[in-house]
Specification:
CATH superfamily of the largest domain: MetI-like
Number of domains: 2
CATH architecture of the largest domain: Orthogonal Bundle
Distance between the termini: 11 Å
Number of strands: 0
CATH class of the largest domain: Mainly Alpha
Helix content: over 70%
Oligomer: single chain
Shape: globular
Largest sheet: none
Length: about 325
């Protein structure tokens, strides 16, 4: 087991390095520091002196990979790649355009993002799996038919409709919760209740259909017919045997959501005014704050790789044969 986990950790290292190199190339090779300066200062009537000053203030006036004018370790350390890319592995993301420390902002804004994403993730998983199990249990019945129709209808509706409709109905007409904003400590739940509810409802359609397909595929396998032949009831076969054997494809779909738990939801946080990482990323894109965008891309890749490793580990708990592969 430990050897299996160690192998997965070793696989993650070159992937993370490769993602870091690609991100650096996109930000500093394809889009050069001169291009960044022109976008920040304005494309028209920008003097070379202003561009050079902007680059010097942010450390973009150094060579990309090797500083031929420096000696010793400075040959590598006094470069854009080391100071803007390698340092991110130590948690040093530099400063945003407004002068704020990016790492501190990330630590502060991660709490509201988790406060939305974690309950949404857990409730969505419970609701969609339970609903899909009911559809599989009552398969080929009127309940299954209208359940699938409802899922298709919910899939066809944009998430923006749920957000705007929920704000209008729950907040503006019924006045049950605030329409947007964020509170502190114990008062925060009033601002989080509606985003969490909308997040759960918006994901029911697609997730339930996906899980229903997985369960129906498992139901047709030989071990299910054997369990029925032994006299086990349909509910025991479905909830004890089918659910357990369907966990691997379910976990595969769940891993995609794990980075969102930390990165936040871009749309939900923007519409509800939640000061999380999602709205932080949107604000940085609008302000063309390349340092923040670069940091969020790197953090997103880190959490996605962590999610993949956790998924591989969970596979071994569901099916111990995997650890020997």
């Amino acid at each position: 087991m430990l050897a299996y986990i160690f192998r997965r950790l070793l696989y993650a290292v070159p992937i993370l390095i490769g993602v870091n190199l690609i991100t650096f190339a996109l930000f500093f090779v394809v889009n050069t520091p001169d291009d960044m300066a022109r976008m920040q200062l304005g494309v028209k009537r920008v003097t070379p002196e202003a561009i050079q000053k902007w680059k010097a203030e942010r450390g973009y006036d150094k060579p990309l990979f090797l500083n031929a004018e420096a000696g010793g370790a400075s040959l590598v350390t006094e470069t854009i790649f080391f100071q803007k890319s390698v340092r991110m592995f130590t948690g040093d993301f530099g400063r945003a355009e407004d002068g704020r420390d990016i790492a501190r902002e990330i630590r502060t804004r991660m709490v509201p993002s988790l406060a939305i994403a974690l309950p949404t993730f857990l409730l969505s998983l419970f609701v969609t799996v339970s609903f899909a199990l009911l559809l599989a249990f009552f398969r080929a019945s009127w309940f299954d038919f209208w359940g699938v129709v409802t899922c298709v209808a919910m899939m066809s509706i944009s998430s923006l409709f749920y957000i705007i409709g929920g704000q209008y109905l729950v907040s503006k007409m019924w006045r049950l919760v605030p329409i947007s904003g964020y509170g502190s400590e114990l008062d925060a739940w009033r601002f989080l209740l509606l985003p969490v509810l909308i997040g759960v409802v918006a994901g029911i359609g697609s997730s339930s259909r996906w899980y229903r397909t997985i369960f129906l595929e498992e139901i047709g396998k030989d071990y299910v017919r054997t369990a029925r032949a032994k006299g086990l009831s349909e509910s025991i076969v479905l909830f004890r045997h089918v659910l357990r054997n369907a966990l691997i494809p379910i976990l595969t779909g769940v891993v995609v959501v794990i980075p969102l738990l930390f990165m936040g939801s871009l749309v939900v946080e923007s519409f509800f005014g939640i000061p999380g990482l999602g709205s932080y990323t949107i604000d940085a894109i609008n302000a063309q704050d390349f340092a923040v965008v670069r940091a969020m891309v790197f953090i997103g890749s880190v959490f996605y790789i962590i999610g993949l490793i956790l998924t591989d580990i969970s596979y071994t708990l569901v099916d111990p044969r995997i650890r020997f592969s």
